[in-house]
Write a structure and sequence with these properties.
With about 450 residues, the protein is an all-alpha fold. The chain has a single domain, classed as MFS general substrate transporter like domains (Growth Hormone, Chain: A). Helices cover about 80% and strands about 0% of the residues. It is built from 17 helices and no strands. The longest helix is centred in the last third of the chain and has 33 residues.
Length: about 450
């Protein structure tokens, strides 16, 4: 707790990366979109469940469509990001997602709101994410330097934590006062404000594209081969891809579970999700000391196990309202404490071991591969909730993650990894023989 309070003390805001104006603007824009994202995270499924009376499986389809752009476009976005300047891509992605989200309140206002509208909006927001998020990560790495990645990701963790600490309560209040579709208007505006902030970042020599245009297949293959030949990146791919199935089972049903199974109002759900922000904030402060004491890899694996435990706790919420609230909110706290611990280390690891000229391709390819199973998770979560029940589907997600964690510990090098490994520089694939090898 002392380290957590120390990280929030005003004196710390003049130190380290806070003195880097480019990082400060990047951090500010991401914080704004994180706050807006809290609204949509609650409002989109509540719009489907409460206004359109959607079934759990229909909400599972919505979750799957939001994740579908990652396996569809992830490999191509990596090539694009390495070929062009990153900042315009990030700004374009923000503006595009803002425009897509505007369709929900407009459709509600004109009386044309339907599940098909939500499906299209969810897919388009996912397209913006598959392009904008890896571009953001590469751009941040270029601007802060590899030596500052752990600090940068921890500060971004604080941003996400603050959004989750305050955002859900505001989101719940907005949804209850204005209805869910109208509340989504605030998320659309957040993307527009973020784009305006990012336009204030001046150009730099690091913005130059890192790859020369070649055949798209060659560049995609180079990213895939780099990941396959790096045992750490390869292990992260299969571990996180498996975990995403259970995570998106959870995402597909959690808001509906709270509203229908536990009978919580939108405001009640929003307040409870604030506990997730406390968990993320604690993780951002604790991950450094945990890495020093237990090692980089073991800390990651502990975070992975913790997410499964959290889903089991949430699935066990029942009884009087106070008890159900305590279990549900407690599970959210454990979930974000564990998930943030894992992902701060994972992002730092991925950015640290990737050669600079391949950052865009490897980042986008890793996102593509690890999120490729997310649509399956959304569909399975919706189907399981409809066939077995919402509570049972939540418990299934938790059990799956708890089984996955020891498998990752046994079959990957993460358990033995105490410190960050050095960058492994691969050779470029330039000859025809190399390009077609293994086809």
């Amino acid at each position: 707790m002392a380290s957590l309070l120390k990280s929030l003390h005003p004196s710390q805001w003049s130190l380290g990366l806070w003195r880097n104006p480019d990082f400060a603007k990047l951090w500010g824009s991401l914080t704004i979109t994180h706050f807006g994202g809290q609204v949509t995270f609650l409002a989109l499924p509540l719009t489907a469940a409460l206004l359109l009376n959607a079934s759990p499986f229909e909400i599972g389809i919505l979750t799957a469509l939001e994740a579908l752009p990652f396996p569809l476009l992830g490999l191509f976005s990596g090539v694009l990001i390495d070929r062009v300047k990153k900042l315009p891509i990030i700004i374009l992605a923000d503006v595009g997602r803002g425009i897509a989200l505007l369709a929900v309140p407009i459709a509600a206002w004109t009386g044309h709101l339907s599940m098909n509208v939500l499906y299209v909006v969810g897919f388009l927001v996912g397209v913006g994410g598959v392009i904008g998020w890896p571009a953001y990560q590469v751009f941040m790495t270029e601007r802060v330097g590899r030596d500052n990645l752990t600090e940068a990701n921890a500060k971004i963790g604080i941003s996400d934590s603050a959004a989750q600490l305050i955002g859900p309560g505001l989101a719940g209040a907005l949804i209850q006062a204005l209805t869910a579709p109208i509340a989504i208007l605030f998320d659309a505006c957040a993307f527009f404000v973020s784009a305006i902030m990012l336009r204030g970042i001046p150009p730099s020599a690091t913005d130059a594209p890192t790859s020369k245009p070649r055949a798209i297949r060659t560049e995609i293959r180079e990213g895939l081969v780099t990941i396959w030949n790096n045992k750490i990146l390869r292990a992260c791919v299969w571990a996180i891809a498996g975990w995403q199935v259970f995570r998106h089972m959870f995402i597909a049903i959690v808001v509906v579970y709270a509203a229908r199974e536990l009978k919580f109002s939108a405001g009640h759900v929003g307040v409870m999700f604030m506990l997730a922000g406390v968990g993320s904030l604690a993780a951002a402060a604790l991950v450094g000391p945990l890495n020093k004491r237990y090692g980089f890899g073991p800390t990651m694996l502990a975070g992975l196990s913790g997410t499964g435990l959290a889903w089991v706790i949430m699935g066990s919420a029942m009884g009087p309202t106070w008890l159900a609230t305590l279990l549900f909110a407690g599970g959210l706290f454990v979930l974000d404490l564990a998930a943030m611990t894992f992902f701060i280390n994972y992002l730092t690891l991925r950015q640290s071991v990737t050669p600079h000229r391949l950052l865009g391709r490897v980042t986008a390819t890793m996102i593509c591969l690890t999120v490729s199973t997310a649509p399956l998770g959304g569909l399975v979560g919706g189907w399981a909730a409809e066939v077995f029940g919402l509570r049972e589907a939540m418990m299934m997600a938790g059990a799956g993650a708890l089984i996955l964690a020891p498998l990752v510990a046994f079959y990957s090098p993460l358990m033995q990894m105490k410190e960050l490994p050095p960058v492994e520089e691969p050779g470029e694939l330039e000859s025809v023989a190399e390009e077609h090898a293994g086809d």
